[in-house]
Automatic annotation (TrEMBL):
Subcellular location: Secreted
Name of this protein: Interleukin-18-like isoform X1
CC terms in the record's Gene Ontology section: extracellular space
Primary location class: secreted
Family to which the UniProt record says this protein belongs: Belongs to the IL-1 family.
Organism from which the protein derives: Microcaecilia unicolor
Amino acid sequence: MWRAFNVLGKSLEMLGIQTRKESWNLRKKQPTLNSDDSNKLKIKSQSTGAMSIPVMLNWEKQELHEQCQSYDETDFWKTYDVKEFLIKNNTHETLVVYPESMDSCGVFESVQQQYQEMYMFKLYLYRDTSPREGIATAFTVQKGQKTYLMTCTEDGTLRLEERTAPQFISGYESKYIFYKRDFNEGDTEAYSFESSLFAGYFLASEQENGWKKLALRSRQHEVDENFRIQLVKI
């Protein structure tokens, strides 16, 4: 009988040692997650060292809400890219800006090729937390040492505001945002730009007092060449 108890005791002791070994091996293989400042997670183990992998969480949206948490809003825009273009109308004239003008922020003129770089616009692309038709964009232009941002006033007039494009914009509407869409199906060279502040109103080339001015106008017909805006790289 005592022999049976001794055998049983040794068996239980061996089982306990084996269980502790397996638990230790599992702890050695178990990764631990440590965040760093580069929006990556580091996986560490005693056997493999450290390896960096991209975060699988939607950190951009989290960052967007953290930056704008002071606003009691649910909709935001956030920049993700910027491109440089000349802006031309349906007759291939180039948009030239006049920040000091009170009746129009720019007119379309014939510009010799060697001077076109002076009239380059930066087109900022924004991600929208409430996606709508088209790509959310904002326009800036350099005039001398100053940067101007195209804006739409409450009375529907276009102005140039001395400032850079904001990285974050809160709210469902913005005086800075214009939605870029294909001008016509199959036309890959031209676009239309609808104001987010005034639904149904688009950037247009408008004839006034012998000038072709950039204006914001209601689009009554699907195909109206005055709303045809070309973005030209040089």
